From TrEMBL:
InterPro entries: P-loop_NTPase. Residues 35-47, 1345-1355 have a biased composition (Basic and acidic residues). This is DNA helicase. Residues 1-157, 1336-1355 are annotated as: Disordered. Residues 23-32 have a biased composition (Polar residues). Residues 115-126 have a biased composition (Acidic residues). Gene3D superfamilies: P-loop containing nucleotide triphosphate hydrolases. It comes from the Bacteria. It comes from Rothia koreensis.
Length: 1425
């Protein structure tokens, strides 16, 4: 069995390593004592310097040799701070102006700025007011004395800083001071006064000693065991949550009357106030003994005098214990000798009223938290403290106008890689954050759990260092600073860091300075130009591809992507349009707004414009422009039809009477009627028998000689004379024929024509109704001529005069009976005329040719238009669409280059740090000279370097780490940093950060006010009921700075979160900012990242009589069993149990302890380690992170509806505790409650309880949808409404693009299960029941570390496929790094195959894309046949 290990996770909880010293005799430090003495002598010598160049500041721990060593016995004193000479200050200011560095100053900030009127009030008294000390000796920071006493009083009052509000909150936060008021009766302690001498001596010699060896008396040992449990828990709490080493062996106590009690009356007169203070403090560790119920004690560090006692005695009575050498008697060889110190104390404090020294040795918890802020300037005209003071004054009666961002960060795609220094991957938000930080912006950064805020903070630090700036990481929790150290070490940057809390030995510090200088001098600039060119080139190609997809034609307002989407939509229809017509640009311009054209086409289609029968209709193409003309045309045709029938009858009857065969067409009738008319004329001139025989000889005789000669007729004169006479005999008497020859010709022609139609040999004659026939024919001819004019442009027009009579009649009948087409003809023809005018002649012809129905013409028009638009846009130089294969290759090249770019970050930081160091050396020659002198001399303590050459230290080691409580004591006012990064800002009081903020002009605070708050604590536990911390409000750095500074939010959650939970947090806390994806196994199995257990079955309880309200036994036992189940099945995953109350947490912990006795095989899981098993109430879970969390509500059903029964969830911070409980786990959260959801909803819902009830309701609703077959991966949009929450897969797909919809259809057809997720993290999720192939994916961290065989075997190789289309607006909004590398890598690391859907490929060959996805799912590709 292996221990939980989460080295790759954020925010580790390291609590196992309690022995941090390696010396076998840790308190034997003669070198340190000598250094202290040496520093004291140096201080005395400095005191004799010229007053004009120096001033004295009384401060805590300001001895030059011991300024960073609070554990040293020489940690107090008076030091002379040397002021810079005029020439030095002038030189430094000039250099700082050139470098934009703040001049090294001591005391008041003097930057010019507008004066601010301020009024004094009791709470917000000026900084440094000695009256702000409380009864425990806590006080605000003391102001430096003003060098120029002649400064105008009114101006000074305007510039005066009023920070007392937050300084007072520091005292509230840290609780009572046990260093001055240790009460052996009330404070939990292990009393060693009556210990076994041999065991006590063994402890004082520095060896591990069992508590049972020291306390032989059974009663004292039992009390000691109980106290050891309490002290060890408190030591762990203070260490983990506040970075305090609080476990000490206190040798001797001193008690005396205070000079003044809180009322101001001397205690000698009233005798009310006494200080009780431990004298000598030695750090001690308390570890459980592995053999049983016992503890091992060991002193693991040098002893020191109680610093609070020393300050108080010096302050009240002027007694300097260090000057009198009290601390020098603390050790004798390798042995702690407290008795010598007590004797020295008695001698030094003989004149102190009521002083009583008692030889009593105890072990308890102590921490020096008084004067933690240190010195602050009393006035300022600008800077962060000035703004805070203004905020404090203004917000009492009006809103404060917070800062706005002044920089304009470049979009991530435009950031030059040569100007970007990152040590971790940075999404678009982090890129903006780093750019704003490098521009000097101060801000707050809301960083919810799981957003990898530490990586973002380190990226910010890397960017600032690359600008030549120094950075201070400020974190109260030791674990946070340990994580910063660990990550800096992993990056190879630990040699650029200065840990202000480690208190390095002078020799070690000297060696580090020298080694770092040598390293800087040897620094070589990384050769990255080729890499940067590769990033620029590949990024540009990927950007151009997306720009091409979204390039918008300004004339038509469309993009190539829209064209492909629309064409995909059109061609995916059941009856897809198929026109091959393409429009020219002119036609495209005229039809941008196609609504009118579509309406015209559809109306024309309704009017049968494209119907085959219409083309064949008798009136098709007729020129009739209105309804009146159609009526007239119909009347004309009907009249023609009747007249034609009459004419046909008349001709038949008349021609039969004369033996003439009628022709079958009107044209034939016309010829016959013309013949009859000619015969009638001839008979009017000749006698009827002229037609009896041919008259050819008569024609020749009457013709001219020329006529005869031309025709070869030879006739004599006699013969001609005879024949002429004969011809004249045929002439009707009294008729004169001027041209007899021509008249005879006509007769002959008429005779011949008659013979062609004659049916017998009857003599030529005329019918009796010839005149009637003529009139009828004229009417028909005239009417048909009119119809011919109407039908002149019609493609179906006919020569009505040549039609056979039956056909003519049939045509006329069809025209007479075609009412519908004739009535709609004017509108139809007008529409077609308009459409032809728009250039749609070719499309109309195509529609007519293919007989397209009215409901399809719009699609045909759209297809022609969009296909034409797409082809025309492809010819534009702005459009450069690339096939997917090429894009994949370019994207792969970009990924490799970008990974190498990030990997080069640490090397670039080192080189930039070297450049920054060289720059500071050239700009600060005096400090450089002094720093060089110090390094060539004997090793010095850190404080001396910071006093004499602060800019050199900041340039050499630009990354500093400190707790807020250490800045004021460690850093002199002359030491400044360019930026302060506050971590865990939501739980850190602003007052604790004031010392850091006074030493910088830029602050970046990371935290989450929704999940944490400053929780006051007590250093020393008390007997009986634990003394609760103060309930006075303490404002966090995040809260106050958020009112003053602009902010950003880290929105990408990299841990596994239930989508219902993310949806709830977005809706009620984070304004929709959070985004995440579940782990891959959740898409292919029933595994979820959150489960709820309702323990509603009646169970016997452990009480008799009154019902249990808090911590029901059944829930305690159920949770304990869950813990053991986890330890057996998932031993590689860390676990914590969180509760809403301390009693419930204690009962669960006891149940686990008792249950472990019968399960020795699981004991290894519960041993101390990197992330040990913990049972905590929510109030003590700040900073806790575990792989899995069980949250147990601990309220029985009998509790009723009172909100007070819900413990910490129902108090004023209940909402923050709800968020904390739900987001502590990386992999899985399990909610356990003895209340049903209905019972919980019926309770008095306040703060966090209301959130819990609401969330569980939405969670159950999402599970109901999942059980009904709806997608469980997606957060519900309308979980609160039964009507709106009805799931419709088709509706979701209609929201998606049509290219994706067509692809989904193909995938489903091959057996894949696909959920379309428009607007979400990915565009679709595809799964299958077959064994999957990996396309770069690995199983998730949860699956990798899970010990559950079912999890590994059933889902390890079932990898879902996440589909991301490059055509969505969301995709285009992401940077190339985010969309092409970070998102795919995130998905692949958490059990997803990721496939980029290139729009060009999905458009041109969707089946190939589908086949590739099917291959990843383990499904057979579809048969293309």
């Amino acid at each position: 069995m292996t221990k939980p290990h989460s080295a790759d996770q954020n925010d580790q909880d390291n609590s196992g390593a309690e022995d941090r010293r390696t010396s076998s005799v840790p308190w034997a430090s003669p070198q340190g004592s000598e250094a202290a003495d040496k520093g004291r002598e140096s201080s005395d010598q400095d005191a004799s310097r010229t007053p004009s160049q120096e001033f004295q500041v009384e401060q805590v721990g300001d001895d030059a040799s011991e300024v960073t060593r609070p554990e040293s016995v020489a940690s107090l004193g008076v030091v002379t701070v040397t002021a810079a000479t005029d020439s030095e200050a002038s030189e430094e200011e000039a250099a700082a102006e050139a470098d934009h560095l703040e001049p090294s100053t001591s005391g008041t900030e003097t930057t010019d700025g507008p004066p601010v009127e301020e009024e004094s009030d009791g709470e917000d008294s000026p900084v440094g007011d000695p009256g702000t000390r409380d009864e425990h000796g806590h006080s605000g920071a003391k102001a430096n004395p003003t060098p120029d006493a002649s400064t105008d009083d009114a101006s000074a009052d305007r510039d005066e800083l009023r920070l007392g509000r937050w300084l007072k909150q520091v005292d509230v936060y840290t609780g009572p001071d046990a260093l001055l008021d240790f009460n052996p009766v009330d404070n939990v302690h292990i009393d060693l006064s009556n210990s076994n001498p041999s065991g006590y001596a063994q402890l004082l010699s520095g060896r591990r000693t069992r508590l049972s060896t020291i306390l032989r008396d059974r009663a004292e040992f039992s009390n000691g065991i109980r106290s050891a449990h309490a002290i060890r828990g408190k030591v762990f709490e203070l260490d983990a949550d506040h970075g305090l080493d609080a476990g000490f062996l206190a040798a001797g106590t001193a008690s005396w009357f205070a000079t003044k009690n809180p009322s101001g009356t001397p205690d000698g007169a009233r005798g009310e106030r006494r200080h009780i203070a431990p004298i000598l403090l030695a750090p001690v560790t308390i570890n459980p003994h592995p053999d049983g119920d016992d503890f091992e004690l060991r002193i693991n560090g040098p002893a020191r005098l109680n610093p609070a006692m020393a300050r108080q005695l010096r302050r009240e009575f002027g007694i300097d214990l260090f000057e009198q050498g009290v601390h020098r008697t603390a050790t004798s060889g390798s042995r702690l000798t407290p008795d010598a110190v007590l004797e020295a104390m008695r001698s030094a404090c003989m004149k102190v009223p009521g002083m009583h020294i008692e030889s009593r040795t105890v072990i308890s918890t102590f921490a020096d938290l008084a004067d933690t802020v240190g010195e602050l300037p009393s006035t300022a005209t600008s800077g962060l403290l000035r703004e805070l003071s203004d905020l404090n004054r203004i917000r009492l009666d009006e809103s404060y106008e917070k800062r706005e961002f002044t920089s304009s960060p470049a979009p991530a795609n435009q950031v030059d890689p040569a100007e970007e220094t990152l040590v971790y991957d940075a999404d678009d938000t982090v890129s903006e954050l780093v750019q704003r930080a490098r521009a000097g912006e101060s801000m707050t950064v809301t960083s919810p759990a799981g957003t990898q805020h530490l990586r973002a903070a380190l990226n910010v630090a890397a960017g600032l260092v690359s600008e030549g700036k120094s950075v201070l990481f400020l974190a109260e929790r030791r674990e946070t600073l340990q994580n910063v150290r660990r990550r800096l070490s992993e990056l190879g940057l630990s040699d650029l860091t200065l840990d202000l809390g480690e208190d390095p030995e002078p020799e070690e510090l000297h060696r580090k300075f020298v080694e770092t200088i040598v390293s800087h001098e040897r620094a070589v600039e990384p050769r990255l130009s080729g890499l940067h060119d590769e990033i620029r080139s590949t990024r540009r190609q990927l950007i151009e591809h997306i720009d091409s997809l979204h390039w918008r034609d300004e004339r038509w307002g469309v993009t190539p992507l829209q064209a492909m989407q629309t064409l995909a939509e059109l061609t995916s229809q059941d009856e897809a349009p198929s026109t091959r017509v393409r429009f020219k640009r002119g036609v495209m311009d005229a039809t941008v707004d196609r609504a009118e054209t579509v309406a015209q086409l559809e109306r024309a289609a309704e009017l049968r414009a494209f119907n085959p029968s219409t083309r064949k209709a008798p009136w098709f193409g007729a020129t009739l422009v209105n309804t009146e003309e159609t009526k007239q045309a119909r009347a004309l045709v009907r009249s023609l039809l009747e007249t034609t029938r009459t004419l046909r009858k008349e001709i038949t009857e008349g021609f039969e009477s004369i033996g003439l065969r009628p022709e079958r067409t009107l044209a034939g009738w016309k010829k016959q009627l013309d013949l009859l008319e000619g015969i009638r004329v001839s008979l009017s001139r000749f006698k009827g028998d002229i037609f009896d025989r041919p008259v050819t000889d008569l024609i020749a005789a009457t013709g001219t000689s020329t006529w005869r000669r031309e025709r070869g007729i030879d006739m004599s004169a006699i013969q001609r004379s005879r024949l002429r006479r004969a011809a004249k005999e045929y002439i009707v008497p009294q008729v004169h024929i001027s041209d007899l020859h021509q008249a005879l010709i006509e007769v002959q022609a008429q005779r011949e024509q008659w013979q062609t139609w004659a049916v017998d040999e009857r003599t030529v004659s005329l019918p009796g109704n010839l005149e009637t026939i003529g009139r009828s024919y004229a009417q028909v001819a005239d009417g048909l001529s009119d119809v011919s004019i109407v039908m002149e442009e019609s493609p179906v027009r006919k020569d009505y005069f040549t039609l056979l009579l039956p056909d003519l009649v049939e045509t006329l009948e069809a025209m007479a009976n075609d009412r519908i087409l004739l009535d709609t003809l004017p509108e139809r023809e007008q529409l077609l005329h308009i459409l032809r005018g728009k250039g749609l002649e070719e499309l109309l012809s195509d529609l007519e040719e293919r007989h397209v129905a009215s409901d399809r013409v719009a699609a045909e028009l759209d297809l022609a238009w969009w296909q034409s638009a797409f082809e025309i846009m492809l010819e534009r130089p702005e459009v450069n669409l690339v096939r997917g294969k090429t894009l994949t290759e370019v994207e792969s090249s970009f990924r490799r280059a970008d990974v190498a770019h990030i990997a080069s970050g640490p090397a670039r930081v080192r080189y930039d740090a070297a450049r920054g160091w060289n720059r500071r050396v050239s700009l600060k020659p005096l400090q450089a000279k002094e720093f060089r002198r110090m390094l060539k001399g004997a090793p010095c303590a850190l404080g001396e370097y910071l006093d004499q050459a602060p800019d050199m230290v900041a340039g050499l080691l630009p990354v500093w780490l400190s707790s807020p409580f250490g800045v004021g004591r460690t850093l002199p006012q002359s030491a400044h940093v360019d930026a302060v990064i506050v971590l865990d800002a939501e739980s850190t009081p602003l007052g604790a950060c004031l010392a850091a903020l006074s030493r910088t002009r830029q602050v970046i605070a990371f935290g989450d006010d929704h999940a944490g708050y400053p929780q006051p604590f007590i250093v020393s536990p008390t007997t009986g009921n634990e003394q609760p911390p103060s309930e006075e409000p303490v404002e966090s750095a995040m809260q106050v700075l958020g009112e003053m500074l602009p902010g950003l939010t880290l929105d990408r959650v990299h841990e596994c979160r239930d989508q219902s939970l993310v949806s709830y947090l977005n809706n009620h806390f984070y304004g929709g900012a959070l985004s995440t994806m579940p782990y891959g196994e959740e898409a292919v199995s029933r595994i979820r990242s959150l489960d709820v257990d309702y323990l509603t079955r009646k169970q016997p309880d452990d009480r008799v009589g009154a019902p249990v309200i808090e911590s029901p036994k059944a829930e305690v036992l159920a949770v304990a069993e869950m813990v053991f189940e986890h330890a057996a099945q998932n031993p590689r995953q860390s676990l914590a149990v969180l509760t809403a109350g301390t009693r419930h947490a204690a009962r669960i912990a006891e149940a686990v302890r008792r249950g472990l006795e019968s399960r020795p095989d699981l004991r290894e899981f519960f041993e101390p380690g990197q992330e040990p098993f913990r049972v905590l109430d929510l109030a003590r879970s700040q900073g806790l992170r575990r792989d899995r969390v069980i949250f147990s509500l601990g309220v029985a059903a009998e509790a009723g509806s009172r909100s007070s029964h819900f413990g910490q969830l129902a108090d004023q911070h209940g909402r923050q505790r709800f968020v904390k409980a739900m987001t502590t786990a990386r992999f899985h959260t399990r909610v356990v409650t003895s209340l049903s959801l209905e019972q919980l909803q019926a309770a008095d819902l306040t703060t966090g309880v209301k959130d819990l009830a609401r969330f569980l309701a939405s969670f159950e609703a999402s599970r109901d949808r999942e059980n009904s077959g709806q997608a469980a991966i997606l957060p519900p949009e309308h979980a609160g409404s039964e009507f709106l929450s009805v799931y419709d897969a088709a509706e979701d797909e209609r929201k998606a693009d049509w290219l994706l919809a067509d692809l989904v259809r193909r995938l489903r057809g091959a057996g894949a299960e696909v959920s379309v997720t428009p607007g979400k993290e990915v565009d679709a999720v595809a799964t299958a029941h077959a064994e999957s192939m990996s396309a770069g994916a690995v199983i998730s961290p949860r699956a990798r570390t899970s010990g559950d065989p079912e999890t590994r075997d059933s889902s390890a190789m079932r990898l879902p496929v996440a589909l991301s289309s490059d055509g969505t607006e969301a995709y285009a909004a992401l940077s190339v790094r985010e969309r092409s590398r970070l998102k795919p890598e995130r998905l692949e690391r958490t059990g997803w195959n990721h496939v980029s859907l290139w729009a060009v490929d999905v458009f041109t060959d969707p089946q190939s894309v589908a086949d590739r996805i099917l291959g990843y799912l383990g499904l057979e590709p579809q048969d293309r046949g």
